[in-house]
Amino acid sequence: MKSLFFWIPMTCALFIAWIMLTGSLSLGSLTLGFVLSFGIIALSTRLRPDRAYPRRIAAMVKLFFIVLKDVYASNIEVMKLTLTSRPDKQPVADFVNIPLHIRDPHAIALLACIINYVPGTVWSGLTENDYILHLHVFGLENEADWHRTVHERYEPLLMEIFE
Q1: What are phi and psi for residue 158, nearest 5 degrees?
Q2: pTM, full prediction
Q3: Contact of 135 with 115, CB cutoff 8 Å
Q4: What is the domain partition of the chain in residue ranges?
Q5: CA atoms within 13 A of residue 140's CA, in its CB half-sphere
Q6: 26-61 per-position pLDDT tens digit
Q7: Fewest CB atoms within 10 Å of the CB: 33, 77, 99, 130?
Q8: CA dist 97 to 9, 12, 56, 63, 75, Å?
Q9: Which parts of the chain fold into alpha helices (H)?
Q10: Contacts of 71 (CB under 8 A, 6+ apart)
């Protein structure tokens, strides 16, 4: 029964996306859209052996607003660094290595999305055996700040949601 709750919303979402992309409500287009959306969902479930069961809705909402605030603040910071940089004084861009405590693959994937959403940061790799995140940061001033950001802002909420 749990898989049915996954199938119905995803099939409907793909079907609606098909209608919006084609711009046609003909019977043939609707039939093809339904068959394609159902087929894509049926085939893609076999590609994901691990299922995610997010738990705490309150933690998800809190994480959303934290990320929203970080994206906004980072946009302002990157804009300032870009507009005020001079040829003789360029902002520092460097790599930071951060050991992660989370092990759930879905939590790690969401952390990768969060880090890439925040302007000025790029997830550049993760070691498989010891879970060390390689992060590229534009405007890096203090490496410890990024350790604190990941360990205190993102990881506890991701652990609460997924582990």
Answers
A1: -65, -40
A2: 0.71
A3: yes
A4: 2-47, 57-162
A5: 17
A6: 999 999 999 998 888 888 777 766 666 777 888 999
A7: 130
A8: 38, 41, 29, 23, 23
A9: 2-22, 27-44, 57-84, 105-117, 143-148, 155-162
A10: 117, 118, 119
